[in-house]
Specification:
Number of helices: 13
Number of strands: 9
Largest sheet: 9 strands, mixed
CATH topology of the largest domain: Spore Coat Polysaccharide Biosynthesis Protein SpsA, Chain A
Strand content: 15-25%
Radius of gyration: 20 Å
CATH class of the largest domain: Alpha Beta
Number of domains: 2
CATH superfamily of the largest domain: Spore Coat Polysaccharide Biosynthesis Protein SpsA, Chain A
Helix content: 40-55%
Distance between the termini: 49 Å
Structural class: alpha/beta
Length: 307
């Protein structure tokens, strides 16, 4: 890409990185943002009350990148709040989100910005990604999300079908505020699904195929906290009911059954929890049939007909 184009593109976007206790990954994450093919974009890191050595690492990063790197410190309000704080600080036309345990392909922003510049009607663009599982014996797979109803239905039922919104999305800043941005009332749980539905309903989203984002598996991920995730997810699914009551009703049923199953399962006590789960399954065959139907259809591809 010509040098003049690089200057123009890098001045269009700010990268917002929420950071909480990310001492093991934050350097690689920031480097991937600064080493984009468009040049070094502005990067705002919101340190959300880290208690490890993240603050010291960020201080060193700023010292070597004072021209493009800014750190905003907040009390621990969660990644959702941190993202909104970062967007408020940004002064560019576009904003990209990147989680502190993820990193990007060097051409990620270039591909997205070129799409934006060729279509004034677009509000946001996501990319394909590769999910690095914590269990390394699983082969990472490339995932390309399409902004259609089929994918949105899968996302409601199966979080694993999500578009990794918070590390693949590049969005017009004005459009972000127009649709309400991340909802901090959800406490950073299921906020991506909530924002995702508003993006979908706008009809201004497209997806760029290709493995351009790489997701980590930090032990501090909020999605790992099932007890906090469940009520937030229930709230979001209830909101979807205002648009699609049938989908919401069935998704809430699936969520309830999933939580019942998880409450009876203990990986550390495999034999005892397996027996307890089997006993419950025999007592509730209808719930098990419904649960398995959803799981099978998720693996083989959802139909648009009601479950």
């Amino acid at each position: 890409m010509p040098a003049e184009s690089k200057i123009e593109l890098k001045q269009l976007v700010t990268v917002v990185i929420p950071c909480f206790n990310a001492e093991k990954t934050i350097e690689k994450t920031v480097s991937s943002a600064l080493e984009q093919s468009i040049g070094r974009p502005k990067v705002i890191i919101v340190d959300d009350g880290s208690t490890d050595s993240s603050a010291e690492i960020l201080s060193q990063l700023v010292e070597h990148n004072t021209d493009v790197l800014t750190v905003v410190s907040t009390v621990n309000n969660g990644a959702c709040y941190a993202r909104r704080a970062g967007v408020k600080t940004a002064t560019t036309e576009y904003v990209a989100f990147l989680d502190a345990d993820d990193f990007w392909h060097p051409q990620k922003l270039e591909f997205q910005l070129k799409l934006f510049l060729s279509n004034d009607c677009l509000g946001g663009i996501t990319t394909g990604f590769q999910n690095h599982k914590s269990r390394t014996w699983l082969t990472p797979r490339e995932r390309n999300f399409e902004w259609n109803r089929k994918e949105m239905v899968r996302w409601v039922f199966m979080g694993a079908s999500a578009p990794a919104l918070n590390s693949t999305l590049l969005i017009r800043k004005d459009f972000y505020w127009e649709i309400g941005g991340h909802d901090t009332s959800l406490g950073s749980h299921a906020d991506d699904l909530d924002l995702g539905w508003r993006l979908f309903l706008s009809s201004r989203m497209v997806a760029k195929k290709g493995r351009l984002a790489f997701l980590g598996a930090s032990t501090t991920q909020v999605h790992l906290d099932i007890e906090k995730m469940a009520p937030a997810l229930e709230t979001v699914i209830q909101r979807i009911g205002e648009i699609d009551p049938i989908l919401s009703k069935k998704a809430l049923r699936y969520l309830g059954i999933s939580n019942e199953i998880k409450s009876r399962w203990d990986r550390q006590r495999f034999i005892a929890s397996s027996a307890r789960l089997m006993e419950w399954a025999f007592q509730h065959p209808g719930k098990i049939l419904f649960f398995l139907t959803v799981r099978i259809r998720e693996k083989t591809g959802f139909r648009l007909t009601p479950i």
